[in-house]
Amino acid sequence: QVQLVESGGGLVQAGGSLRLSCAASGRTFSTYTMGWFRQAPGKEREFVAAIRWSGGNTYYTDSVMGRFTISRDNAKNTVYLQMNSLKPEDTAVYFCAAGSGSRWLPPFGAADFGSWGQGTQVTVSS
Q1: Whole-angstrom Cα distance, residue 56 to residue 41?
Q2: Which has fewest Cβ within 10 Å: 33, 35, 52, 105?
Q3: ∠ CA(104), CA(38), CA(96), 5° rounding?
Q4: CA 37, CA 46: separation in Å to the nearest integer?
Q5: What is the pLDDT, as a whole number, of residue 26?
Q6: Which of 18, 4, 45 is nearest to 123 (CA)?
């Protein structure tokens, strides 16, 4: 089991940027596919981005393509989500998630991830 703690959320104006971080515990972090999800009020949790254990492959939902970048530093047991050109519709609680091992078969859903962080709020004002 991987323990995950997100940070970096906050309030930003439309067009601004934020970088989320997710610190993981566990010596096998470097073997996991990692992902970011988000959940807006009254909506289901949706997939945002994923990165393969090596960092060599990434996958994004269409609505964030070209604006968000997922990356990881296995030496620091940390995965990041750089969010640029933020829009009000990006407002949500963002969750970090660890996959069940190194499996890489996009598209991804919540069922592909077994460990979750507590979430960090991102609010984009218009």
Answers
A1: 33
A2: 105
A3: 55
A4: 5
A5: 77
A6: 18
Task: Say whether 45 sits in a helix, a strand or coil.
Answer: coil
Per-10-residue mean pLDDT of the chain, 126 residues long, equals: 94 98 88 96 96 95 98 96 98 95 91 95 97
At residue 102, what is the residue type? S
Cα–Cα distances in angstroms (integers) from residue 47 to residues 11, 63, 74, in the given order: 21, 10, 22
pLDDT at res. 60: 98
Edge-to-edge strands of the sheet including 68-73? Answer: 3-7, 18-25, 78-83, 68-73
How far apart are the C-alpha atoms of 98 and 16, rounded to whole Å?
27
pLDDT for the residue 30 = 85
